[in-house]
Every structure is written in C-alpha cells, then in structure tokens.
Specification:
heterodimer; A: mainly alpha; 12 helices; globular; B: alpha/beta; 6-stranded parallel sheet; 10 helices; 12 strands; about 20% strand
C-alpha cells in the first residue's frame, strides 16, 4: 500500500510532483512520440528517434555555446531550429538510403542510433568537452540559452508548450490538409496510393521521415535547453525507444500521444517516488511500470475485439 | 483505422492489473522504508546510485555504506537508482524538499546536479563520490584509487607468465583511466618489458560484452586482467573462470569472493568506511564542506590479495608492502594528472 501511495504521490500528489516531475518527464516523450507517430502513419518504421534526438541535443549544445551572449530569444530559437535540423539531417541519412537504395529503415535507423551514441561519446570528450578536459560532458550553457520555465516555481519548460503546439499542428495537418491526407493514404496502402491515387510515395515518405527526425531532434534540444543545461553521455535513457510504446498506445493519434506521454511520465515519476519514499527496489519499480503498460495495451486490445464483435453482430451499429 | 481512443475503458482489465500490481508490490512492501528511528527530527540520509546495487562492486558497496550509516548512526535511509542527469537533479530536489540531512550522489557525474540544487536547499548536505565541486553545502569524496591500482599492477606483473596484462573498463571515465595508468606503471616497475592491453566495454551493465572483451584479450595472450566495469565486469569474471591459467583482479569492492579460485586480489575502496566518516561529521553538525581526500594513509583505499590463492612470491609481497608504506607516508606520489 505504501508503494502505491508513493507512486500516486510521486506523479500527482502535489503541484510540484505534477508540474515538475511528471510533465517534465513527459516532455521529451511527447515530442519523440509525435516523431514516431507521424512516421508510422506514413508507413515509415523510424526506430531511429533515439539517434535523431541525440543529434538534436548535440546541435543545440553547440549552438548554445557558440551564441552564448546573444539575447535569449535568439539563442532559444536557434537551439530549437538547429535541433530540428540536426534531427532531420540524421533521419535524412536513413531516408536517403531508403529512397535511393531501398535499404530498410528499420535496420538503417536503428544502426544510426549506435553511431549517434558513439558520436555523442566523442563530442563530450572532444570538441564540446568542458574546459578543464577532465569530465566527459560539456560545460553548462549560459543563462541566456536556458529555455524559459512556464510556471513560477516549477520546472516545466518551453519544450512542453512546443510539444502541445506540435501535437495540435500535426493533428490538423493529418486530418485537414491535402498533404496530410497523402501521408495517411501512403500509410494505409502505398501501392494503392501510387496506382489509384497518383501519389508520389517515395517523396511523401521521404518528407515524413525528415519531419519525424525534426520532432525527435527538437526533443534533444529541449532536454539540453530546458532540463540538463549541458550535454552528457547519458542524456537520454532511451526516450527514442519508449516513444514507440508511447505512440502505439496512442494509436498514432497526435492528440493521444500527449495523453499517452503524460501517462508514461507519471509512471516514471511515480516509480522514482516508489524507490525513494517506499523503499521499493529499482527492479521491482521497473517491473511495475512494465506491467502497467502491458495491462493498458492488453486492455485496449480487448476493447477492440469486443467492439469488432459487436460490429459483426449488429452491422447497423457500425 | 486509427480512430483514437474515444471511450477508452478498461475497467475489467484495470481491476485484474491491480491484483497483479498488489502481488508485485507485496515484495516491495516488505522492503518498505527501512528506518531505525523515525519522527520529524530523524537523521535522514539518501543515496543515489548510477547503477544497480547488485553489481558486487561500485554500487553495492555504496549501498553497504548506506546501511552502515543506518546501523551505526540510527539514520533513516533511502536509496534510488538513477540513470540520466535529469533524474539526478530531480531526485536531489525531492530529497532536499523532504529535509534529508545528507544526500550522497555516487559518482562524479552527480556534481553538476549538486551545484544546481544545493543552493535551493541549504539545510541538506550534498556529497558526491568523486568530483571537485565544493560549496556551502556541497562536498566531494576523492579517492586515491590509483595508489592501490599501482600495487595491483606490481602483483599482476609478478604472476604473469606471458608478459601480457589486460585492463577492461566500463566507460572511459577519468578515475578509471587514472587507475589503469597507475596499474600499468606498477606493472612496469616490476617488469619493464610487460605489455598492457586496454579496452572499454562502452557501458557498465552489459555482462555479455564484458565477457567478449575479456575473451578477446585472453586470445591475445593476456593472463592477468584488471577489470573495473561493475555489473558488466561480472562477465569478465565469467570469461576468466572458463579460461585456463588466467587471473582476474577485482575493483571497487572486495571481489575476491566472486570467483575465489581465479581472483588474484581486489583493488578496494572501503566505501562504507568513507560514508560513515562523512555521515558522522554531518550528524554532529561538524562537517565542513570540502574535498575529502581519502588515500592509502587512511586505509580507505587498499590492495587486498585473495587469501584463497597463494601465488604471489614472498619477495613481491614484501616489495608491495614497502611501496604501500611509501604511499601511506606520502613519499611516493603518482603523476595521474587531474584525478577527481
């Protein structure tokens, strides 16, 4: 019981827990979740969001160091855009390989994750290392490069607002625009889209791949600018992989990605509190998180089957 | 096809999940907050580790230190395993807000988080194991881990038949590289022509990769391997156990019991001793924030030969002892560079 109370309190128990723990943890998951959801909607299995996030984090840190003394509006904008471009560029490698040589993006984007990790290890020991040259990390970014907090006394930062904005924009794009429609059509059936719809499949998937990488890159920039204020080797605990679960749980719907990411953020914040305040071992806390996710996924599946059976039984109800 | 999650209901599943959860948590509840004394004014101490406390090395001996603080000083303790810099900071804040007297971040990687959070919670003492940051309520423990590593190098060179030694680390962190450099220097002091292979696994938890690195070094004729890779290092033990005529040297904790027949000895940091030293001062209100330097003279770092195997020649043992004495009297210092 202690543990369940700690779990709840750690995620929602106080305004600090919700705004500064749960939502801060949810922020990268919203952005990377969107990256994965958009790609999957177009049938692009981008599992390289982790690498794209790292590319974004590296670029944002480099820009923050370089622009150090500029006004905040300039540095923050540059970091966000730079992060997005770096993420898109990193995704562009896999996208080009797919378009030009038909290399499966599942393999190439996954392999690029490991290359990005190696690149990160190198930059924090090389070009971006802190000035004493001892520790594998960058120096702390200037105050003017730190992303603004959204609420007085809370840790919630600009990144979350950008996540909400992007979710709204992507939802609108997919549902209401012609290019968004093409994305959905390609995802539903690429051959039919090409033959019956006259859609340029290669071009559409290429573009979506880049957009997806940009979202993930923005997540990297947002972590550096809003949370860690420096580049470290362990900057991502695997957000790119968790985000796949986030996106699938949300059925690849941008609006639900936000909900799903907050759910994951709450679970992680709560699991931390379980360790801290209830003495639950780390492993058990992790098992608990995994079980909860499994349970929710199974619940969604059961609901679908029930609904499908109803539709079959009463066709008019569909 | 994707119609969102409208009317998302999972009452039945939710109920069954709750049952599973309760079952999982039952184990956790047994391990519920361990306290020797409770109440508002209890002396509360927290530990953040970067890895699992089951690694029989860096993290598990830190946890033993936390338990010793509880047992010796009647402290109320809390532990959390953390992974990212974002988590370091968040948990430092949470412990500060809860009024913990002492919060230990177990690694130099916690120092930035301590610098940022420290000023917000002046009543909490933030101590990092390693690191160089000091502030009104921020301190660091610094270990001369290179000194006993040097002694281990002397021992390794004395028992090596092939003249090839190996070092395997988790990731390339400053204290680890300094230790390996000292190990090689110690080996050369005994046998100038010895060669030392080096490898890093790239993480601290992949025992499979640790085993592979070890097998690769053994294939290159290394017959004594000094590992410093925590949970991944257990794979190195595995590889050595399966190979003939190869010795392993443990690190951080006394690992002589992990594989008693093939372990030459361990380079030990007595973390429980070090933690207790600091916690006692903090509890008495007598702790002055500083870099607490612990070296051979305090016996917190030491070379511990495995008593179960007696392969070291008496002459080598004598030479190691005299070198140790010179470290203790500060007559011999190692040019390890800026070791944290």
């Amino acid at each position: 019981m202690d543990a369940l109370v700690a779990l709840w309190d750690g995620a929602f128990g106080s305004s600090y827990a919700f705004w500064s723990a749960t939502l801060v943890r949810a922020t990268p998951l919203v952005l990377v979740g969107l990256a994965v959801a958009l790609a999957f909607r177009a049938g692009v299995l981008n599992i390289g969001a982790e690498g794209q996030l790292i590319a974004g984090a590296i670029a944002a840190t480099a820009l923050a160091q370089w622009l150090g003394a500029m006004p905040r509006i300039v540095t923050v904008t540059a970091m966000a855009l730079g992060g997005m471009m770096a993420g898109a560029a990193w995704a562009g490698i896999a996208a080009t390989l797919r378009r030009r040589y038909g290399v499966l993006e599942v393999i190439s984007s996954l392999m690029l994750n490991f290359i990005a990790l190696a690149l990160l290890s190198w930059v924090v020991r090389g070009p971006l290392q802190e000035p004493t040259g001892i520790y594998p990390q960058s120096s702390t970014i200037a105050a003017s490069a730190r992303w603004p907090f959204l609420l007085q006394g809370q840790r919630l930062h600009l990144g979350f607002a950008l996540g909400l904005l992007l979710a709204t924009v992507s939802r609108f794009w997919l549902a209401r625009t012609a290019s968004g429609f093409r994305v959905r059509v390609v995802g539903a059936g690429a051959r039919a889209a090409a033959s019956a719809g006259g859609v340029d499949v290669a071009r559409t998937t290429f573009a979506v791949f880049l957009v997806s990488g940009a979202c993930a890159g923005l997540a990297g920039a947002s972590e550096v600018g809003g949370v860690t204020w420096a580049l470290y080797e362990g900057i991502s605990p695997g957000y790119g992989y968790t985000a796949i679960a986030v996106a699938l749980l949300a059925r690849l719907d941008p609006r639900w990605v936000v909900v799903s990411a907050v759910f994951f953020g709450a679970l992680e914040a709560g699991a931390a509190a379980m360790q801290r305040d209830a003495g639950v071992p780390a492993v058990i806390a992790q098992v608990f998180v995994a079980l909860t996710i499994l349970g929710v996924l199974a619940g969604a599946h059961v609901r679908d089957r029930v609904r499908a059976r109803r539709i079959v039984a009463r066709p008019e109800a569909a | 096809m994707y119609n969102g999650l409208h009317g998302y209901r999972l009452s039945g599943i939710a109920r069954s999940m709750l049952v599973i959860h309760s079952a999982v948590l039952f184990g956790g509840a047994c391990a519920s907050r361990e306290s020797a004394s409770s109440g508002e004014n209890a002396f509360r101490v927290a530990l953040l580790t970067p890895g699992p406390i089951t690694d029989q090395a860096w993290n598990s001996s830190a946890y033993q230190g936390l338990e010793r603080i509880r047992d010796s000083l009647g402290a109320e303790i809390s532990h959390i395993q953390t992974k990212t810099p974002a988590e370091f900071e968040e948990n430092f804040r949470q412990y500060g807000a809860q009024g913990y007297a002492l919060v230990i971040g177990h690694g130099f990687e916690f120092q930035d988080a301590a610098q940022r959070v420290g000023p917000e919670y002046p009543k909490t003492m933030y101590v990092t194991t390693g690191g160089t940051g000091v502030g009104p309520n921020i301190a660091a423990l610094s270990f001369a881990f290179d000194e006993p590593s040097y002694l281990a190098g002397m021992a390794a060179a004395a028992v090596s038949k092939t003249g090839v030694l190996g070092t395997i680390g988790g990731t390339e962190l400053p204290p680890v590289t300094a230790s390996f450099t000292a190990f090689a220097a110690g080996a050369r002091a005994v046998r100038p022509d010895i060669s030392v292979l080096g490898a890093f696994i790239g993480n601290w938890d992949d025992a499979g990769a640790g085993k592979e690195q070890a097998l690769a070094q053994i294939a290159r004729r290394a017959d004594v391997i000094f590992q410093n890779a925590d949970a991944a290092g257990l794979g190195v033990f595995q590889a050595v156990r399966e190979s003939k005529g190869v010795w392993i040297i443990g690190a951080n904790a006394d690992q002589n019991g992990v594989a008693p027949t093939v372990t030459l000895g361990s380079v030990v940091i007595d973390l429980p001793h070090a933690f207790l030293l600091v916690a006692r001062e903090v509890k008495a209100g007598a702790f002055s924030p500083r870099i607490v330097r612990l070296d051979t003279s305090s016996d917190v770092v030491r070379w511990v030969p495995n008593p179960a195997v007696a392969v070291l020649p008496a002459a080598t043992t004598a030479r190691i002892d005299s070198t140790r004495a010179r470290f203790a009297r500060h007559q011999l210092t190692l040019p390890t560079g800026p070791t944290p």
